[in-house]
Write a structure and sequence with these properties.
mainly alpha, Fumarase C, Chain B, domain 1, Fumarase C, Chain A, domain 2, Ribonucleotide Reductase Protein R1, domain 1, 3 domains, two-stranded antiparallel sheet, two-stranded antiparallel ribbon, 8 strands, elongated
Length: about 475
């Protein structure tokens, strides 16, 4: 068996692995919650370490914590933030309420490492104690809500860059395909013509609007409740602590942060995080719709509409030779479905706070941060391995748009809705193009047919043919 050391907490003694930087309370959490086999997400660890570093600096400035202990805690925190000791954060995301286990995992690791830096041994907690010094003037109840806000804000630039990359890729295709007229479809049925470039430009617009909503929601996360202590009232906290914590957290993270004006409200409510998660969901809804559209447009290549070609990234079948699937859009759909489910969990958990605290914060943190991670990665892959390499199948776009039964709509201002509907039905029944049928039946003068049925002009605002016909009121 591996060597152990004996530690004690209010529940009694427990043998901890001798080489572990975590301690007895962390080990109890590991034993109590063997749920998912997952470790805390890096952003959830980093944000808690930022808080401990900022607290040490704050208490060093106020004189509540002596410089020797404070500097050792800061050095230990910097080691973790630099990538060391990451294997020491072991508490399952599905843990006891509020995040006490995660908070103590951070406290114990930093305390043990600080003591080593000062010449002490792991597990002795002298001169640095995890509760008395690393957790000084803090509670799980104010650090974890602050953690979630910091972590989301810290991950936001990566999500912004990913979706800006995707937006720009879609917009570039909008410009590239601006001359490609294709059949529009509503209800998955023939509709009036649209340009392929217009579709892609609209996709880019959806990403722009969705990302704007996400960032607007994120602004609420900048209000920090740190200093609320146990129930938001600030008991055991110095008056200057909230301002100093905000100052040091801004310096450490580079984030634009604000001192929360109502720390009780910021502890009671997870509404700001739920609102942010909800906008991630809305962005995922639009993203998934785009991925689904591409899967429809690439359908074929012989038995579908085949209007675009996606980059081939892998063989599409283990049995059908030569088959290529829209693998990247399929992945994007799955990610978006997961994000929608994660947001549902966040919403239910946010509602399920009682009185002064929401104890469901660990699952809220895990879900919103996981949503950000997978959306960021999916958007980058979608842009770089799919969208940027899309090609228009111009021949098929031209083929289908000319055969659209909806082209009869352009005739309605000239011959009336009822007559145009007859032409549309006749075209489908006989398998004859609208254009050819109009000429054959001499419904309009030959010199007017091509003007009224100008496909490009149908993709812009205006009256087909440029003037009213027989259907206009007298």
């Amino acid at each position: 068996m591996s060597a152990t050391r004996r530690e004690k907490d209010p529940l009694g003694p427990l043998d901890v692995p001798a080489d572990a930087l975590y301690g007895v309370q962390t080990l109890r959490a590991k034993q109590n919650f063997p749920i998912s086999g997952l470790r805390p997400l890096d952003a959830f660890v980093d944000a808690q370490v930022w808080l401990k570093k900022a607290a040490a600096l704050t208490h060093k400035q106020t004189g509540r914590l002596d410089a020797k202990r404070a500097d050792a805690i800061v050095q230990a925190a910097d080691e973790v933030l630099g990538g060391q000791h990451r294997d020491q954060f072991i508490v399952d995301p599905y843990q006891a309420g509020a995040g006490t286990s995660h908070n103590m995992n951070i406290n114990e690791v930093l305390a043990n490492r600080a003591n080593e830096l000062l010449g002490g041994k792991r597990g002795e907690y002298a001169p640095v104690h995890p509760n008395d010094h690393v957790n000084m003037a803090q509670s799980t109840n104010d650090t974890i809500p602050t953690n979630i806000r910091l972590a989301c804000l810290a991950e936001l630039p990566k999500l912004n860059r990913a979706f800006e990359n995707l937006r720009d890729a879609l917009a570039a295709k909008g410009r590239e395909f601006d001359d490609v007229v294709k059949a529009g479809r509503t209800h998955l049925q023939d509709a009036m013509p649209i340009r392929l470039g217009q579709e892609f430009t609209a996709y880019a617009g959806s990403m722009t609007r969705g990302l704007k909503r996400v960032n607007e929601a994120a602004d609420y996360l900048r209000d920090l409740g740190i200093g609320g202590s146990a129930v938001g009232t600030g008991v055991t906290v110095e008056k200057e602590y909230p301002e100093l914590m905000n100052k040091y957290l801004k310096e450490i993270t580079g984030l634009d942060l604000r001192v929360g004006q109502d720390r009780i409200q910021l502890m009671q409510s997870m509404g700001d995080v739920a609102g942010f998660s909800a906008q991630l969901r809305v962005l995922a809804i639009d993203l998934s719709k785009i991925a689904s559209d591409l899967r429809l447009m690439v359908m074929g290549p012989r038995t579908g509409i085949d209007e675009i070609t996606l980059p081939a990234v892998q063989p599409g079948s283990s049995i059908m030779p030569g088959k290529i699937n829209p693998s990247i859009p399929e992945m994007v759909n799955q990610v978006c479905f997961q994000v929608m489910g994660l947001d549902t969990t966040v919403g239910i958990s946010a509602e399920h706070g009682q009185l002064e605290l929401n104890v469901m914060m660990p699952v809220i943190a895990f879900n919103v941060l996981l949503a950000m991670r997978i959306m960021t990665n999916a958007a980058n892959v979608f842009a770089d391995k799919c969208v940027k390499g899309i090609e228009a199948n111009r021949e098929m776009c031209a083929y289908w748009v000319e055969r659209s039964a909806a082209l009869a709509t352009a005739l309605a201002p000239q011959i009336g809705y009822a007559k145009a509907a007859e032409i549309s039905k006749q075209s489908v029944k006989e398998g004859v193009l609208i254009r050819d049928l109009v000429k054959r039946e001499k419904i309009l003068p030959d010199d007017q047919v091509d003007e009224v049925l100008d496909l490009r002009k149908m993709t812009e605002i205006g009256m087909p043919g440029g003037k009213f016909g027989a259907s206009a009121g007298g």
